[in-house]
Amino acid sequence: MRTALVIGTGLIGTSAALALVQRGVTVHLADHDPQQARTAAALGAGTDAAPEGPVDVAIVAAPPAHVAGVLADAMRRGAARGYLDVASVKGGPRRELEALGLDLGGYIGTHPMSGREKSGPLAATADLFEGRPWVLTPTRDTDTEVLNLALELVSHCRAVPVVMDADAHDRAVALVSHMPHLVSSMVAARLEHAEEAAVRLCGQGIRDVTRIAASDPRMWIDILSANPGPVADLLSDVAADLDETVRALRALQSSDDAERRKGGTGIEDVLRRGNAGQVRVPGKHGSAPRAYETVVVLIDDQPGQLARIFADAGRAGVNIEDVRIEHATGQQAGLVQLMVEPKAAAVLTEALRDRGWALRQ
């Protein structure tokens, strides 16, 4: 791959362009909003000048509802040797292209499983995809050359290729991305008119649950409109669980002992099923989840605090497996949760205490 055309210079398109430029690929940028393409070019993602002839690969980074139309236009113009898109839904765009009667040997649908709450070229980074799965959905008609171009793109972006059927992909992302986003938004919506005194009690739990609810609604309308069936099926299952949980909670209010026991059993069931599902979420480097010990450190909100903690852990010979920060509401302080191997917890605790850090249980 020596040349590429990125059509759509939002977060994903500009991030891919930045990564390709770093690998020496000449990237041309196009967008329905020329100013956005110029912004991406100013960030170093390529040039907004049109290519003089066909490029090696055209990357369509448009919303799912517009992917087929943009791809069809590029194919009819002969803009590239190979074509791919990076939309979060795969089955629909391919069926639309088939309905248009286009030769799909030169096309492959892809989806990088990475993103941010922010959108647009200014949110883009060259390392957005590093270590993240990048789904490829080839068919029997896909040219080997196009599959190789897609694999080269994934390699340049330092992502991990995953091959899937298009419809299986759409069911999977409904489960791990689209449905959770709606549930997060529903939880966050409870806060909109809540009393200020209650909102000030927000801790890390509610922040974790509602983080993705900050995303652009217009973008998510496009995504959900392209994959409504699988998402609706999953939400129907969630709704059934909610109904059962509400009944169980009402039963806990009963004056009848048997009814209260029944309610407690219902709540325990949903919590245990939640435990069983949560442990299946891949852990570090995509491996099976591991049990870590947590060392909690109180820090001031000052520059260099985190760097000092990591340096002190390194001097103690302890590798930090994961880290979380819980900010104290209304205070210039926070709690840093350092996840380490169980055998390293005591070593890290002693080392941090010796260096003057305030630890918490």
UniProtKB/TrEMBL annotation:
Enzyme class: oxidoreductase
Gene3D superfamilies: 6-phosphogluconate dehydrogenase C-terminal like domain, NAD(P)-binding Rossmann-like Domain
Kinase is among the record's keywords: no
EC code: 1.3.1.12
Keywords, in A-Z order: Amino-acid biosynthesis, Aromatic amino acid biosynthesis, NAD, Oxidoreductase, Signal, Tyrosine biosynthesis
InterPro entries documented for this protein: 6-PGluconate_DH-like_C_sf, ACT-like_dom_sf, ACT_dom, NAD(P)-bd_dom_sf, PDH_C, PDH_N, Preph/Arog_dehydrog, Prephen_DH
GO biological process, one term: tyrosine biosynthetic process
Catalytic activity: prephenate + NAD(+) = 3-(4-hydroxyphenyl)pyruvate + CO2 + NADH
Keyword hit for Amino-acid biosynthesis: yes
GO molecular function: NAD+ binding; prephenate dehydrogenase (NAD+) activity; prephenate dehydrogenase (NADP+) activity
Residues annotated as signal peptide: 1-19
Highest taxon above the source species: Bacteria
Domain ACT: 294-361
Pathway membership: Amino-acid biosynthesis; L-tyrosine biosynthesis; (4-hydroxyphenyl)pyruvate from prephenate (NAD(+) route): step 1/1
Residue ranges constituting the Prephenate/arogenate dehydrogenase domain according to the UniProt record: 2-283
PANTHER family recorded: PREPHENATE DEHYDROGENASE, PREPHENATE DEHYDROGENASE [NADP(+)]
Family: Belongs to the prephenate/arogenate dehydrogenase family.
Protein name: Prephenate dehydrogenase
Organism per entry: Streptomyces lucensis JCM 4490
